[in-house]
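Incident review: delayed structure delivery

Summary: a single-chain prediction request sat in the queue longer than the usual turnaround. Root cause was a stuck worker, restarted by the on-call engineer. No data loss occurred. The affected request and its eventual output are reproduced below so the record is complete for anyone auditing the incident later.

Affected input:
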Amino acid sequence: MQIIVLNKDTLLYDEFKFKCSVGKNGLTSNKIEGDKKTPTGTYGLGPMYYRKDKLLKPLTKLKKIQIKKNMGWCDDINSKFYNKLIKSKKNISHEKLFRKDGIYDILIPIKFNTLKPKKNKGSAIFLHLTDNYKKNSWVYSIKKKDMLILLKLINNKTKN
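Output delivered after worker restart:
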């Protein structure tokens, strides 16, 4: 099965339809780091990351990884860790995963530019949470209640 971003505010999975938001500057087939756009295409899903202090371990067939305070996702195009999970370091630019705003209380990395990351091609491409569907610089976001439903439906063979 495949998760389909039908348009800038609709995500489909099988017969389930979820309201979503995409990057502030829309969708693109030519993703560039920092362009605030969501890449188009079909990609696999990574493991589910979650905040144990904010919710019980969600039900899903995806591998589950607890988010720790020192976890980050490298967005430094000059780093050998570009577009990879890292321990937060002051000298490497990264997206903090342990956040106060709740958007990463649950997240699933999209396997975009991950196998052999190309510098400046885009990093930290996640399906994550939103409260208001406001367009942001992040990629795909849905409400927590919808994410919990989606997690029960998908598995490690699901594509996005």
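Verification: Residues 144-153 form the longest helix (10 residues).
Action items: add queue-age alerting; document worker restart procedure.
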